[in-house]
Design brief:
It is a single chain. The chain is of the alpha/beta class. The chain has 3 domains: 140 residues, no CATH class; 83 residues, Rossmann fold, CATH 3.40.50; 206 residues, no CATH class. The protein is built from 16 helices and 12 strands. The protein has a 4-stranded parallel beta sheet, sandwiched between helices. Strands 5-6 form a two-stranded antiparallel ribbon. Helix 6 links the parallel strand 1 and strand 2. Helix 1 packs antiparallel against helix 5, helix 4 runs antiparallel to helix 5 and helix 10 packs antiparallel against helix 12. The protein is flat and about 85 Å long.
Length: 468
């Protein structure tokens, strides 16, 4: 780990401490402000000198809770939403501890408002402080300070995508110092490369075989280089395992998804509440789209047909009609396929069909497809339980029929309106890359992951719209 990373990790401790103290002070002066006094008169005495001593001690105790919550780990660089989630849980644990102390002894102070306000401000201030630290760190990355020298191995599409990503966005903290395309000679080329170049990490993006990979791992260990690799489709499936001991014998269960039991109930409740809220918010827009579809071309407002849902069961899927009436069946017609360009290349390797400049799409259809307004009725499918807000996209029976065995894992859960592929440049992803992302989501589901995907989806749609 770079010294700069250790410094920034160490800085977080005093920053968190100051932010918690600042939250306590803000809560105190807010309660004693004229505005709060008018709403609820103060009937207790709490000198600031006594209060600030309690805040100092409380902030120290919270640092211990933050440490147990994993807020000071140096191994993982979390996304902002993950950081906020951990801060929320840590601050909530801290406030529960404080409530317990207050309940056992009333010698501290009696103001519930100050405690609750301090909790809210602590979440906001601690998160803000960490954002500032992270922004400063990323600014230094862009100037080449504290970056990791990265050597990449591979020449497939995934390799090219990662190279473009790191070259475009310097804030990830990686500087590509070399690229070995010939993976068959990876170890020899790496050995020669590090003689004249400083390498901190090696990223293997292409499968070079188990034996060669192990040799590369041993080489990295010997030369104190961090080794990372992009998992294959099977490895992406095998992330979530559970170990049980029966009669002293370890039994490993390959879990299909953590979405079971109460987690499944939680996701369903979240889907119901979210879909109801979305239907209420988007109902005026849906009305406008319905009128536009009806005025633009002959045919029904909605278009419904079968798609494949959870466990491979078909369900009735409907959205706003974006094509001319009775033209959907043409998509697999050989004579029609000769007239259009299939950007996906429908075959056994790629079951997805996508036509460029599809003549079946109407004028309004082009707009509502580009802005994804045609998919707004899917919220009703979520409400009735056929779909989820987040999950793998539902495909047609003809497409699912061409799935490889490992791809059928995406049918483990309900299909969703949006998902990881949709916020990861879906139009630029191969079908296998989409499946890999969907499997990762299935195997690593958390409610905060759903929140992250839902939060990011509108920004991706706006970005695509500007690009169009």
């Amino acid at each position: 780990m770079k010294k700069s990373e250790l410094i920034f990790a160490a800085i977080l401790v005093p920053v968190d401490y100051l932010m918690v103290i600042l939250a306590g002070i803000t809560a105190y002066f807010l309660r004693f402000s004229a505005f709060s006094r008018e709403i609820r008169p103060i009937i207790f005495e709490l000198p600031f000198e006594n209060y600030i001593k309690v805040v100092f001690l409380t902030a120290l105790a919270w640092l211990v809770i933050f440490a147990f919550a994993g807020l000071y780990t140096t191994k993982v660089r979390r996304r902002f939403i993950d950081e906020f989630y951990k801060i929320f849980l840590a601050c909530s644990s801290g406030i529960m501890l404080l409530f317990g102390v207050i309940f056992m002894s009333r010698e501290l102070f009696d103001s519930r408002f100050i405690v609750l306000a301090g909790w809210i401000f602590s979440i906001i201030f601690v998160f803000f402080g960490r954002v500032v630290v992270r922004v400063v760190e990323k600014k230094l990355f862009k100037k080449g300070i504290g970056v990791h020298n990265l050597l990449i191995i591979g020449k497939d599409k995934t390799t090219e995508k990662i190279i473009q990503l790191f070259k475009k966005d310097k804030s990830f903290g990686y500087k590509i110092v070399g690229w070995i395309e010939d993976s068959s000679m990876a170890l020899e080329k790496v050995s020669n490369f590090i003689k004249t170049n400083k390498v901190d990490e090696i990223l293997q993006c292409e499968d070079i075989g188990q034996e060669k990979s192990l040799e590369l791992v041993e080489f990295c260990n010997e030369h104190h280089i961090v080794y990372k690799y992009v998992p294959s489709l099977f490895e992406a499936q095998a992330i979530n395992v559970e170990i049980q001991h029966l009669g002293g014998v370890p039994i490993i269960e390959l879990k299909r998804t953590p979405l079971d039991g109460w987690r499944k109930i939680l996701k369903r409740v979240f889907d119901i509440l979210g879909s109801i809220l979305a239907i209420i918010i988007f109902s005026p827009i849906m009305l406008i789209v319905a009128i536009a579809v009806k005025l633009d071309s002959k045919g029904p407002i909605f278009f419904g047909y079968q798609r494949i849902g959870q466990y491979g069961k078909p369900f009735f899927y409907f959205k706003f009609r974006s094509m001319k009436a009775n033209t959907h069946e043409m998509r697999y017609d050989p004579s029609f396929r000769e007239q259009v360009e299939d950007t996906r290349g429908w075959n056994n390797q790629n079951p997805m069909v996508k036509y460029k400049n599809d003549p079946r799409i109407t004028r309004v259809g082009k707009f509502i497809r580009r802005t994804s307004l045609d998919e707004l009725p899917e919220f009703f499918n979520v409400l009735i339980g056929k779909m989820s807000l987040v999950g793998p996209r539902p495909h047609e029976p003809e497409e699912v029929a061409k799935y490889k065995k490992e791809c059928k894992h995406v049918l483990t859960i309900k299909p969703g309106i949006t998902g990881l592929p949709q916020i990861s440049g879906r139009s630029d992803l191969s079908f296998e890359e989409e499946v890999k992302l969907d499997i990762y989501y299935i195997e690593n589901w958390k409610l905060k992951l759903d929140l992250y995907i839902l939060f990011k989806t509108p920004f991706i749609l706006l970005k695509r719209r500007k690009a169009d």
